[in-house]
User: Fold this.
Amino acid sequence: MGHRNLPFVLCLALFAGTVHAQDTLYRKTSAPYQFWTAKLPLLNLLDPNAPNLQLAMERRFDKHNSVQLLGGISTDFSTTKPKPHDYSFVNGFRLKAEYRRYFHVRRKVAFFLAGDVFYTSYRHYTDDSFISKTTNLGYTDNYYVRKKMAGADLKWGFQFHAGKHLLFETFAGLGFKHKTVTETGRTSPFDEHVPPPSPVDINLSSETNALGSYTTVSLPINFVICYNFR
Assistant:
């Protein structure tokens, strides 16, 4: 081989090595993160008003970016008696779309920031105390509370890999939701609710079932079991 061809051969070898290194780096950093993950949020099953079963699918595009779609049904475990003829165990639905950005990605653990938008609609059978406008006496009535909620959240969390396919994740966040709350099925819809015993008392049921159309705080928190299909 002539000395005049030596620089050309060295350049060709360097270029081939660079291409091979880039291809190896791509296969190591990008391809392993392009997969689907099925998810089951567990804390939604404990919702005191309307326990709900939700399933999500996350599509991971690369090491840092993914989108997620979630859908679910709400259930009514009401023990209020007697139940009306139109009572239904499945009482609503929930939809959510999310963008997620991963960072500090390691073999076992990854942290993430996520933003989502959601819509929820359900009704649950309940009872409460009222004051009759005609007799001024108190009584208890059974009826439906219907809720429609739309909003957005910003969440922070981390994901833990427990094996090749099994993952766990947890998150907490802050957001807002616009609620529209109505009542149906009451005997006397214009009678007033019995107020709490004292202004300083906190009545969580009254707070969450407050009638009207208004915006309030959303505090998402959950623990999720996941299975990826890579």
In short: The radius of gyration is 27 Å. The longest helix spans residues 6-29.
